[in-house]
Amino acid sequence: MDLKEMRDEQLGRHPWETARAAALAGLLEPCLHQGMSVLDLGCGDGYLSRTLFRHLPGSRVTAVDPNLTPGQLALLRERGEWIAYQTELPPEGSRFDLTLLLDVLEHVPEDRDFLTQVVARHTEKGGHVLVTVPAFPALYSGHDFSLGHYRRYRLQELEGHLASAGLAVVAAGHLFASLLFPKYFLFKLLDRSLVAAGVGCWKGGRILTSILEMWLKLENSLMILLARRG
């Protein structure tokens, strides 16, 4: 969750968040192991790290977000002692088995240079990097602007950034295809850019949440399978 969307966790998680976490867990499963070190850049409220690594014994997670306030840091540190939350990057040379850049690059003006520096300074030899970004430049809207997004990406463009950073692309694809038209309608045609609360203000009931979550999880599983088959 983007910190601009952060709300009381008791309101419940948006089905997009829970389905996204499930998809990322499946993608990461082959490279997860006990005692691994993880760098979560742009961690937001820490939901993904808490979800993905809570059952991984001995894992060490450094979660970084420069926009965390002192109050948010205190709250997040109370939630999980095994995650080290901070607002600055670790010292150069601190290397990690897995680096997460989940919806981060779109916030960075010089995204290619930033990615290259992160990989060179913090990724262990033989380590893995997982990157997610908002797709399709045609969908860029006032909602993106309100969240501090500089751009949306085409898949080939992102793969080019990864290659220039010295990474070999193991797998690439899209998620949440069924949300493309609703996003275009709400944020492009209706220009609901003032609704910046986004996923942070989900108030759907238990039944609606379960249905949407199940649908999105099934859809993402299908899209991952299709991507793996080319």
From TrEMBL:
Taxonomic superkingdom: Bacteria
TM stretches of this protein: 161-181
Entry keyword set: Membrane, Methyltransferase, S-adenosyl-L-methionine, Transferase, Transmembrane, Transmembrane helix
GO molecular-function term, one example from the UniProt record: methyltransferase activity
GO annotation (BP), single: methylation
Pfam families reported in the protein's UniProt record: Methyltransf_23
Keyword Transmembrane attributed: yes
Family matches, as PANTHER family: METHYLTRANSFERASE (PTHR43464), UBIQUINONE BIOSYNTHESIS O-METHYLTRANSFERASE, MITOCHONDRIAL (PTHR43464:SF19)
Protein name (database record): Methyltransferase type 12
Species for this entry: Citrifermentans bremense
Lineage summary: Bacteria, Pseudomonadati, Thermodesulfobacteriota, Desulfuromonadia, Geobacterales
